[in-house]
Recover the amino acids of this structure.
């Protein structure tokens, strides 16, 4: 199954934003540093974009390509 993220429009009604609507941070996720020596194993919170929620839902629904 192929998942498509609908992304259209300039988002003029919610401007001024520093990014497109799909990249708007709306939550957070826990991030574990594994590939940096100075941060190895440390956990921290990172912003989570709207599009990330869409990707997670598509994967949960069985999408193999996004």
């Amino acid at each position: 199954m192929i998942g498509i993220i609908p992304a259209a429009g300039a988002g003029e009604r919610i401007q001024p934003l520093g990014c497109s609507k799909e990249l708007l941070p709306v939550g957070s996720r826990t991030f574990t540093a594994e590939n940096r020596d100075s941060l190895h194993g440390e956990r921290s919170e990172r912003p989570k974009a709207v599009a990330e929620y869409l990707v997670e839902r598509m994967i949960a629904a069985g999408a193999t390509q996004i």
The chain is about 15% helix and 25% strand. The beta strands are 25-32, 43-49.
